[in-house]
Amino acid sequence: MPASAVVGIDDDAAVVERRGKSRPYFARLRALAAENGLRHLSMGMSHDLEVAIQEGATILRVGTALFGPREKARPAQESGVIKNE
User: Which residues neighbour 33 within 8 Å (Cβ) at sequence distance 6 or greater?
Assistant: First the structure.
C-alpha cells in the first residue's frame, strides 16, 4: 500500500450569522497550512464563501447555494430509525 501524504486542512468554522465573522477562523487555518507546508485549504460554505476565498480557500462546500437548504434533521425516534418497543 502506498504511503499517504497530508496535503491540506479541512475545517468547518463556527457557524456565524454575520458575513465576515468567520474571517478570524479562516485566517488562522491559512496560517496553520502555511506553517506546515500544506497547499490545500478546505474551508467555507455557501454562506461565507466570499470570505473563505479571500482567505485562501482552495476547496469550498456550496451545496446549499446549488441545491437549497436541507430539511432539519428529525430525532431518530420520529424518523423510524429507532423503534420504541
Answer: 8, 9, 39, 40, 41, 56
Residue type, 38: L
pLDDT digits (tens, 9 = 90+) for 24-44: 889 999 999 999 999 999 998
> What is the Cα Rg of the chain in Å?
17
Question: Residue 42 has what pLDDT?
Answer: 93
* Segments in the chain below pLDDT 50: none
Task: Enumerate the β-bridge partners of residue 65.
Answer: none
Task: Locate all alpha helices (DSSP H) within the chain, ordered by sequence.
Answer: 23-35, 49-54, 63-67, 76-79
d(CA 34, CA 23): 16
